[in-house]
Amino acid sequence: MSIASDDIGSVESGQVGEKSIVSDDAASTSTVRKVLKVLRDPGLAAALLNAQLCMRGKARLPLSVRLFGRICFRSGGDVKFGVGVCLVGNVVPIEIVSIKGSNISIGDHTFINYGTSITAYQQVRIGRHCLLGHHVRILDKNEHGIKERNVAPPAAPIVIEDNVWIGSHTIILPGVSIGSNSAIGAGSVVTRDVPANCLAVGNPARVLRRI
Length: 211
Known about the structure:
Elements: H1 18-40, H2 42-55, E1 66-75, E2 78-81, E3 86-98, E4 103-106, E5 111-112, E6 117-120, E7 123-126, E8 131-132, E9 137-139, E10 158-160, E11 165-166, E12 171-172, E13 177-178, E14 183-184, E15 189-190, E16 198-201, E17 206-210
């Protein structure tokens, strides 16, 4: 007897096709739980709807993105949100500026607090499960040069990897990369790369210790 490749994983149970049925049932149960959670929480439902109304057409975002409060959005480039991203602009609006030809991506389940401003002339990439405190500034291009103040320097990509914590009022400057699982202390100015699994603080930010 021949068995289709999709059913190979079910042979051990002795019932061809059982694996796919169980998988479908699990997905259905998960979907029902999510729908019930939204129906029971009017605030969550409002945040999901708010995100779609404020950002649909300006960014690529799944239905699970939540926006509490306001966001100021200028989208000329490509902006993409991951699953379960949470934006809180209920005290001061969040600002996202994407210049034409640029790319902003925000990974799954990342949290962005009020007053945060993200500006991309080239690329800003934020990983999954990151936490950004309020009034964080992320910009991949300086508006003025040091020697020739009328000539802006070129943009340089910013990369923030997964599970990074960024304290309130932190400024992240062009060309910086922050490794996964690192933390940046409040009020820091990040001018150079921060390795993974490190705590960096100060102006300019320096690695204080490994975590």
